[in-house]
């Protein structure tokens, strides 16, 4: 497809054309962002945020031939905002407008962002006009420019009451911002003739979705891919070989990693393209970002596949398989019983579980990755060669942190029981997957023996984890008597993983 045609079709709402366009420019866009941010992972964040906005902004592009400089301006603007910290805080109302872009045109049904900002601010002020009594008097005083202490003295109201009224008013204003952004998004969906309600078949599950591969396998089932067992998905994506530990050694370790980085890699290895939003560390979400995630979810469900969303259920990957625009709710399932309903405006705003990640499979791109590519990815996973997440360690460093926590008596017993249970399952899959690979026709001679040896090492690690599990009893306040036993077990597992990585590296050289 000619690139101009691709841009025109993407602007008209063709999702396949949009996906192709993103694939063509993603690498170059990352370089543009990296020039400003000087950090590859932040650059990926900036590009992802830009691409989330691309679908909404593309219809306003006047000249398809100007797409590249227009996209470059969009990405660089996002990178500069991130550099200033603008994307990691909740902005006051009225600071959301973007600078004019000469390649964008305003259309009657899609006013420019600054016009929306003025209308939104006016609507929010109307919201506060409904206040009564002291609340209205305080807000009127603030509107006139008085400081809180001055307003308290002028109105004869206790200073603490003034601050309480301001806090509640700001909370209401923030709710208005999210509500109005969703209103505009749903209005655009109605204009475009999108379905108002779709509910797919309810997901099946047999275990918690704390492992990304479990959720991914379920999504693949919706597309008719039922031949791959969980062991294969766990191995190809690297989930079977991942280990992460928080600095506090609590239950978040194994399930906190750079989700977007991991999912893009996982999708590529199984022969799919993907779109994601979110990485660990984001504590707040902006209304525009929330709508971007809603757009991802709507697109996935309309394509017949659930979206994977992290932290709707604490520390699990939910599958969102339905929506109802009239009720403004998403329908999701986790391992916990029952169908869960999440309002559009609550997405990514839970105070109990900050941070949001959403991922969707776009389309098949070809055959799965080669055995060589998969093995190279596994070695990186074992070594902990993945993007940094503040407060967490990965690979061999994770084992060292875990062992130190044991020896220093700073374990969270419940969290570590959970960690050992998940790692036991993961390492059993690692053993089985490497055993399967050792029988692959593309692996011969000494390389086959080395992969088989790595499989045996992971069997040892699996059995070590099973022995460690009783050392982390549920319901006990501390771990003291068997500290040396636990430290020895973790040391043995760490050394076995390092040896397995060496076997796989040697096998790669012989392929």
TrEMBL record:
NCBIfam families: sigma70-ECF. Residues 21-86 form the RNA polymerase sigma-70 region domain. Keywords: DNA-binding, Sigma factor, Transcription, Transcription regulation. GO terms for biological process: DNA-templated transcription initiation. One of its GO terms (molecular function) is sigma factor activity. It comes from Paenibacillus ginsengarvi. SUPFAM superfamilies: Sigma2 domain of RNA polymerase sigma factors (SSF88946). This is Sigma-70 family RNA polymerase sigma factor.
């Amino acid at each position: 497809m000619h690139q101009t045609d691709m841009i025109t079709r993407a602007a008209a709402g063709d999702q396949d054309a949009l996906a192709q366009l993103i694939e063509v420019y993603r690498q170059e866009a990352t370089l543009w962002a990296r020039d400003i941010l000087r950090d590859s992972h932040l650059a990926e964040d900036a590009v992802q945020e830009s691409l989330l906005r691309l679908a909404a902004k593309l219809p306003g592009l006047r000249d398809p031939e100007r797409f590249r400089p227009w996209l470059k301006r969009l990405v660089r603007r996002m990178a500069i905002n991130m550099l200033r910290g603008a994307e990691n805080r909740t902005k006051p109302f009225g600071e959301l407008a973007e600078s004019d872009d000469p390649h964008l045109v305003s259309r009657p049904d899609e006013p420019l962002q600054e016009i929306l900002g003025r209308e939104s601010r006016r609507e929010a002020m109307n919201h506060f006009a409904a206040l009564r009594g002291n609340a209205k008097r305080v807000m009127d005083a603030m509107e006139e420019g008085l400081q809180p202490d001055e307003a308290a003295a002028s109105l004869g109201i206790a200073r603490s009451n003034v601050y309480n009224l301001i806090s509640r008013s700001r909370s209401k204003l923030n709710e208005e911002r999210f509500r109005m952004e969703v209103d505009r998004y749903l209005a655009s969906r109605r204009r475009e003739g999108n379905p108002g309600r779709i509910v797919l078949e309810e997901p099946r599950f047999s275990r918690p979705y704390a492992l990304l591969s479990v959720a991914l396998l379920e999504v693949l089932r919706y597309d008719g891919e039922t031949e791959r067992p969980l062991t294969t998905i766990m191995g190809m994506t690297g989930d079977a070989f991942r280990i992460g530990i928080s600095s506090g050694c609590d239950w978040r370790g194994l399930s906190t990693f750079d989700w977007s980085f991991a999912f893009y890699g996982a999708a590529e290895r199984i022969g799919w393209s993907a779109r994601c939003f979110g990485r660990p560390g984001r504590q707040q979400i902006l209304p525009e970002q929330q709508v971007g995630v809603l757009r991802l979810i709507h697109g996935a469900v309309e394509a017949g596949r659930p979206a994977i969303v992290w932290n709707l259920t604490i520390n699990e990957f939910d599958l969102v398989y339905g929506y109802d625009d009239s009720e403004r709710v998403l329908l999701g399932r986790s391992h916990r019983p029952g169908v869960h309903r999440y309002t559009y405006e609550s997405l990514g705003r839970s105070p109990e579980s900050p941070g949001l990640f959403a991922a969707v499979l776009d389309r098949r791109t070809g055959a799965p990755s080669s055995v060589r590519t998969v093995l190279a990815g596994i070695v990186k996973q074992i070594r902990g060669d993945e993007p940094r997440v503040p407060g967490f360690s990965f690979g061999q460093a994770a084992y060292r942190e875990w062992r130190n926590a044991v020896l220093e008596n700073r374990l969270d017993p419940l969290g570590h029981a959970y960690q050992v249970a998940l790692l036991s399952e993961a390492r059993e899959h690692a053993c089985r997957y490497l055993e399967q690979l050792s029988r692959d026709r593309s692996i011969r001679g000494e390389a086959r023996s080395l992969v088989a040896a790595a499989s045996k090492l992971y069997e040892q690690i699996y059995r070590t984890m099973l022995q460690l599990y009783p050392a982390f009893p549920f319901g006990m306040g501390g771990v003291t008597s068997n500290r040396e036993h636990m430290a020895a077990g973790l040391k043995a597992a760490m050394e076995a993983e390092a040896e397995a990585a060496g076997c796989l590296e040697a096998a790669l050289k012989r392929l």
